[in-house]
Structure formats: C-alpha cells, structure tokens
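User: Structure please.
Assistant: Input sequence and predicted structure:
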Amino acid sequence: MPGLGRNLIDGEWRDSALTRPCVDPSTGSEFGQVAIANDRDIDDAVSAAAKAQQTWQDMPVTARAGALRQAVERLRISYGSEGEATPLKQLISQEVGKRLEEADIEVAETADMLEFFCDTAPETLADEQLDLNKELWPNKRSLIRHEPLGVVACIKAWNYPIEIPIWTLGAALVAGNTVVFKPSENASLSGIELTQHLQQCLPPGVLNLINGAGDVGAKLASHRRINSISFTGSASVGRELSVKAAAEGKHITVEASGNDAALVLSDCDIELAANGLVWGAFCNSGQVCVGVKRVYAVSSIADDLVRAIQAKTAALRAGIDFGPLISREQTVAFQAFVDQAISVGAKLVATPDGDIPEKGFYAAPCVLDGVPDTAMLLTDECFGPVLPIVRVADEREGIERANASRYGLGASVWTRDNDNGRRVAEQLNVGMVWLNDVNVAFPQAPWGGRKLSGLGTELSYLGIREYTQPKHICIEESADADRVWWYPYGRG
C-alpha cells in the first residue's frame, strides 16, 4: 500500500490531520491515504505561489522552458516502452480503473504535450510588433507583450489524471505563472506523482499541490490572491465557478460537460464506423468528455450499423477491454440514465456476452436503439459505457439534432467522402470535429467547447496564450515637445 499522499507547499511536502482513503475501483478496496488540505494549507499554498511568481515571471522564457523540459525526460523514463507496466501506468490503472493500454497512451501524450509547450513558448510569447498607419503615426511604434496572469488555481478531473492537468500546468508555468494544483479527490495519488515529476525541476513555490474534494477546490478558487482559475469537470460546477470569477474579476478557463454526437452518413464504411463508435463509447468505460454520447445514423444504413455494433459489443471483455467506473455512486448514476431511457421507449440491443465482475464498480457496456428525445441520454451527459442510437432520415436531420444540444464540446462524422464530411463538420456548433475517428488530442490543435461545454482554450499555441494577458506598449520616437492633437485646439 502506498504511503500517505501529502500536500506540496513552498517546496515542502506537508502532512495533515485529516485524511481520505484511496479506493481501487476494480476491487472497491482501499490502497492508500491522502492528506486533506485545511484552510491554513490552502492559504499557505497560495501565498507561496504569490511570493514566487515575480521571480519566475522575470526568468527568460527559454529558462522556464528548459526547466520544464527536464520533467519531459522524467515522464519519458516513467513511460518506459509501449505496453510496459511501469509504476506510473500501474498507479493510474489502480487509482482510476484505466486499462494498461489507456494508461500507456496517457503517459506518452502527457510527455508529448509538455514538450510541445516547451518548444513553442519562446515564439508564442515573443513581443509582437504592430504595423501602424505611418501616414497618421509616423513617429510611433507599438508592440504587444504577453504577460502572465499571476497565480493560477488548477482544479482538474480524474478521468485523465495526468494528461488533463498537464494541459494547464505546462501552459501556465511556461508562460510565467505560478500554480496551485488541486487534483480530483478520485485521482490524488496520480496528481501527486505528476507534481513530483515537475516539482523537482522548479524553484520552491512555483508549483504547489493541495488535496481535497469540492469544498477545497471552492476555497482555492475564491482565494483573494488567485488571479486565474482553470477548471475541468461538470457543467454545473463550471457555471458556478464562472459566475464567481466574473464577480471577483478573475480570469477563468472551463472545460465542462459534453454530450458529443456522432453523425453516421449513408456512404460510411460500416466496419470502420462500428469499430470507432464502440471504442469511442466504451473506452475508459465511457468516462470521457468527448466520448461518443449520441449516434445519429442515417436510416438507410442503420440496420447494418447496429448489427455490426452488436457483434463488437458482445465480444468486449471485462477487465481487459473495459474497466470499472470510478465509484459506486457513478455506477448508480449510470444505471439511472439507462433505466430512464428504456422506460421511455429505448431498446437494449447489446451487452457483452461475458460475465461482469461482482467486485469493484463495474457496469456492463450497453447499446440502446431507437432512443427517443425524452431520454436523458440525449439531453444530459452520462459518464458511463452506453451507446444510444437514433435513426435520422438524412444528414440534414442529423446535423439539426446534433446541434440541438445545450452542449458543444466535440463531434464526429463517419463518411467515405472527406470533402462532404468537412462540409458537415463546418455546420456543427462544437469546438472540435473528427472525421472517421474520435477522441484524439494533439498538442498542436486547440481544445475547447461551446455553449455549456466551456470557456477558453487548452492546447496549441492558443493554450499558452490562454494563461497570459496582452499589454499594448506604445512608444513615441519623436523628441518634439508638442503634438498636433494636443492643446491648443484650432491651430490649423
């Protein structure tokens, strides 16, 4: 059993009188303890970050990137090789229930994304010279500086316990901010492990970590010395934090709930679409913000598609292809979504043929056909392994029904015609669209949602800029003591 997970404050790991058990969702058994931050810990962590911020900001961006690049190498060592069950991958699997293959790609992508921030920050953060109208302003020169926001509260979800945090930690730190990181209470040990990789390369106070549940996150976000909040989690909490941030004049980035639609067009490759949709719905046991949550299949190919999906779902193996949900409460919430959909007319058409473990928090992946509009699966995010299928007359109806959601995170389009697929993608009111794939993140590509799915941007050069504020500096290069637009008026 791992030792006690601690809080990191000003370069020192600190215990707490209050602890929380870490539970393996595959077994339901405790395997560690985490020290929960109290009010003093929160204040000390924010104060340490505030104290360290100016010195860290004043370092050249190349020096900040160089420090963080050491963490890239540490992560790559922890990755080992593809398919190797290294301690970091095993910890992720034990704490959040991921399969080794899913933990494997998460560690690899985390290192790749941090390296991207290090590589691109010098150019992204360089001063921008503005091209002014020289006839109007012959002696003026203007530039834009990209300055850090200050102290960032990083409050993150558990489903990608090191990859999602690095989107904020890497971008915010390389941009010159300091950070107080609160990992999810369901992924504390993974968050601590990531922090250890980073902290060893940074001056004290630049990165701090506090553990706890939502109450700790709320206190951190509302601390008077926090300048920016970066949150990944539910839409309801995201809205609450956004309202408070606006009232307190704080910058906020939110990546919240999604209810992503998949549009399966009449010319799709059935085998390709079925493979992608089954993986997109059930990877990480459906606990993915951009997983396939709603399928709109054109009626002419829907029967063939459903038959292919049924066969692939039946072949899924518990503990190999899919793991548990994160908690017992999550399994109850998942089952409530499925039961409600069936009660209003959806038909259960597929589940795995194999047994589902009685220990832990497993739930059987399921496919529902003929899901009506009154099903909560179509209106709200279900974080669990369910694939709802809706039949539509044509692609136009699919686009309209996909766009009718309150959410606008991602979507996918399945077609043999990439040109038409792109035209469909352009009509979808979401932040990201994949053609003939789903749930793929690249460090070079922006990640963010519309409507209730979020505010701001993660990843790409825009993700670095997200943790900066522009400052316009205007320089008058003439030594004249007067300007024609100054007093006295009426000169000419």
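The chain has 15 helices and 23 strands.
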